[in-house]
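ARCHIVE CARD
CATEGORY: sequence design from structure
SOURCE FIELD: tokenized fold
FIELD CONTENT:
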């Protein structure tokens, strides 16, 4: 593993734990037992590092979801596995990270793919098309429009200004809204699978 990869992984861990603003290049260098100069040989500044971290996180999540899609029994199974991953991710993520991401959106405006708050579901169109092919989602839905609506509904589920009393657990609110949306576009076969996987996920959560 090269220095760039090591720096990205450690920076991602620290950003998620302490927030973006709280982590300085000095702190990162000290935690890695390297000189700050070594970091600046790879990244121009903290903003450049943040872009690299977000790109690395998105690529990693995309690769995991690709594996889920290829190895799951059906697309709904893949979605619920992604929800499991999302729960674990948010457990380790500081609220400060979410707040800082909103503040850094202006700096990252040239990289719109990195400013999304829901990278887990960036493959919505693929999810919908496969669900239709498997007979799990209704064939009469407009895939492109439905995909956009899903993202907007999920963003709303995590917006404290819109739903101040429903955002104590961000991961839970996203999960609930996503499943509700899927139910609305599912066939009877799809609904049976959603109920099956939803019950499994709730049982696993209760055991933790």
């Amino acid at each position: 593993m090269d220095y760039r990869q090591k720096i990205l992984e450690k920076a991602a861990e620290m950003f998620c734990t302490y927030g973006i603003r709280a982590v300085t290049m000095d702190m990162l260098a000290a935690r890695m037992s390297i000189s700050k100069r070594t970091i600046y040989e790879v990244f121009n500044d903290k903003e450049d590092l943040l872009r690299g971290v977000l790109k690395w996180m998105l690529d990693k999540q995309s690769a995991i979801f690709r594996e889920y899609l290829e190895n799951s029994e059906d697309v709904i199974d893949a979605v619920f596995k992604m929800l499991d991953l999302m729960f674990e991710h948010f457990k380790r993520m500081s609220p400060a990270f979410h707040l800082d991401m909103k503040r850094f959106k202006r700096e990252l405006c040239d990289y719109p793919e990195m400013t999304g708050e829901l990278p887990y579901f960036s493959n919505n169109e693929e999810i919908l098309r496969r669900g239709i092919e498997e007979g799990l989602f209704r064939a009469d839905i407009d895939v492109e429009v439905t995909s956009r609506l899903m993202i907007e509904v999920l963003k709303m589920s995590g917006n404290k200004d819109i739903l101040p009393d429903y955002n104590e657990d961000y991961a839970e609110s996203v999960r609930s809204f996503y499943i509700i949306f899927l139910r609305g576009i599912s066939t009877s076969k799809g609904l049976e699978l959603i109920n099956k996987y939803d019950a499994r996920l709730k049982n696993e959560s209760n055991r933790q």
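CARD ANNOTATION: The chain has one domain: 3-207. The chain is about 70% helix and 0% strand.
SHELF: design records, drawer C
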